[in-house]
Specification:
- Strand 7 (140-144) and strand 8 (147-152) form a beta hairpin.
- Helix 4 (102-117) packs across helix 5 and helix 8 (225-235) packs across helix 9 (252-258).
- Helices cover 35% and strands 23% of the residues.
- The radius of gyration is 19 Å and the shape is globular.
- The protein is of the alpha/beta class and 260 residues long.
- It has nine helices and twelve strands.
- It has two domains: 8-131, UDP-N-acetylmuramoyl-L-alanine:D-glutamate ligase; 140-258, Alpha-Beta Complex (Protein-Tyrosine Phosphatase, Chain A), CATH 3.90.190.20.
- The chain has a six-stranded mixed sheet with strand order 7-8-12-9-10-11, sandwiched between helices. A three-stranded parallel sheet has the order 1-2-3, with helices on one face. A three-stranded antiparallel sheet has the order 4-5-6, covered by helices on one side.
Length: 260
């Protein structure tokens, strides 16, 4: 269930009447629409109820019936890139995800907790996790003859930007980011963009920006996607290029141009 205002998840919960409810995290996506972090947490908590089995992330302040994450009922150990040991109720199996990014291990734990609550055995959970592939626009790695593209264009928030940059840093070779504007950040939008821009410039080989708010990243700015695509193909042969921004800037069109 998604929302950008208080009461929306409560309304959707009333319709769906879930048997199991889970909040994956309480970070900063859409924070500007909620009017602050406290309201964002309150809105996400609307998914929980007395008539459902409530699954919580140990990094949040929610109380529930089953937890996942560090010190949770379901947790990961011996993490190595996209591999980890999945621990559930005194059982342990090794899982190798096809997904990249530390945050996808957290997502895998959330899914595992839900499956465990439904009575699915740990080996079946392992099989399901290892068969899961990245959706288009969500850290999808696209190998081109002279370029590796990390397509994360589905959407963007400050926290997901940090996660994507951290994932890019696990690759070898020249590391380049194309960062688009982040939407729905309210009065703090400029500050959020400046912080992400500083992080990117401090850790990557090159940073390019697209979209009005993206100017606050203080990278090399482009107004035209064709020109940006041409620049990348000319100046960053064999580089790994992360492309990420909110849906409104349509950076998926840049991904398409780079694949022509």
């Amino acid at each position: 269930m998604g929302a950008n205002h208080l009461g929306e998840i409560a309304y959707l919960r009333h319709i769906a009447q879930p048997n199991i409810a889970v909040v994956t995290n309480t970070l900063d996506a859409h924070i500007g629409e909620f009017g602050g972090f406290d309201n964002l947490v309150k809105a996400k908590g609307e998914i929980y109820g007395d008539d459902s089995q409530n699954i919580v992330n140990t990094n949040t302040t929610f109380a529930g019936d089953l937890s996942f994450g560090e010190r949770g009922d379901v947790f990961a150990s011996h993490i190595n890139n996209n591999g980890f040991d999945l621990n559930i109720a005194d059982q342990k199996v090794t899982v190798i995800l096809q997904l990249i990014g530390q945050h996808n291990i957290d997502n895998a734990l959330a899914a595992s907790a839900c499956a465990h609550a439904l009575g699915v055995d740990i080996n079946t959970i392992k099989q399901g996790l290892e068969n899961t592939q990245a959706e288009k626009g969500r850290l999808n790695v696209i190998q081109q003859p002279n370029l590796t593209i990390i397509d994360d264009t589905y959407n963007a928030s400050p926290q997901s930007m940090k996660a994507a940059i951290s994932t890019l840093l696990t690759f070898t070779g020249e590391k380049v980011a194309v960062l688009g504007s982040m939407a729905e950040l309210g009065d703090e939008a400029k500050t959020f963009h400046q912080r992400i821009g500083q992080l990117a410039k401090d850790s990557l080989d090159a940073v390019y920006t697209f979209g009005e708010l993206a100017k606050h990243y203080d990278g090399m700015h482009f107004e035209d996607l064709d020109q940006l695509a041409s620049h990348l193909l000319t100046h960053h042969i064999n580089a790994v290029v992360l492309i990420k921004g909110s849906r409104m800037v349509k950076l998926d069109q840049l991904v398409n141009r780079l694949q022509k």
